Amino acid sequence: MGCQQMTASAFSLSTLHPSSGFKVTLGEPVIGGLRGATRHYFCAHCMSWLFTRPEGMDDFVNVRATMMDDAQSYSPFIETYTDEKLPWATTPAVHSFNKFPQPEDFPALLSEFAKRLE
């Protein structure tokens, strides 16, 4: 529900990236949206939601897919928080989780995703 409210949409499409390969190169994002251990960063100028640093997942950052130059090429591989989805909202995601996958699930999921890119 929180992501739906922050995007005013049925979806919150993001791409998971290693934190080590991510940095803000221009401007200083501000924390906004829902408050808590998960930090949502927004453009200080236009207040667009840019990226999220999920609680307990310091090795990763979720970047809003629409921030990418080639956003049209993204197709959901994993959908999360399906326990909050609108009943009519569907995606072509290969995997679905009520919340986030468990940390121990990520190596296999990342490996499967990487194989799709080969």
**Beta-strand percentage?**
15-25%
Strand order of the largest sheet: 1-5-4-3-2
Per DSSP E runs of 2 or more residues, the count of β-strands stands at: 7
Major sheet size, sense and barrel closure: 5 strands, antiparallel
Q: What distance lies between the first and last C-alpha atoms, to the nearest angstrom?
A: 35 Å
Task: List low-confidence stretches.
Answer: none
Q: What's the SSE pattern?
A: HEEEEEEEH
Count every helix, treating DSSP H or I runs of 4 or more residues as helices.
2
Helix content: 10-25%
Tell the overall outline: globular
User: Radius of gyration in whole Å, from Cα?
Assistant: 14 Å
Mean pLDDT: 83
Content-based structural category: alpha+beta
Structural account:
By secondary structure, this protein is α+β, with helices and mostly antiparallel strands. It contains 2 helices and 7 strands, in the order αβββββββα. It has helices at residues 2-7, 106-117; strands spanning 14-18, 30-32, 39-42, 49-53, 60-64, 78-79, 95-96. The chain has a 5-stranded antiparallel beta sheet, with no helix packed on it. It has a two-stranded parallel sheet with strand order 6-7. The protein is globular and about 35 Å long. The mean pLDDT is 83.
Features:
118 residues, alpha+beta, 2 helices, 7 strands, globular
In short:
The chain has 118 residues and is α+β, with helices and mostly antiparallel strands. It has helices spanning 2-7, 106-117; strands spanning 14-18, 30-32, 39-42, 49-53, 60-64, 78-79, 95-96. The longest helix has 12 residues, at 106-117.
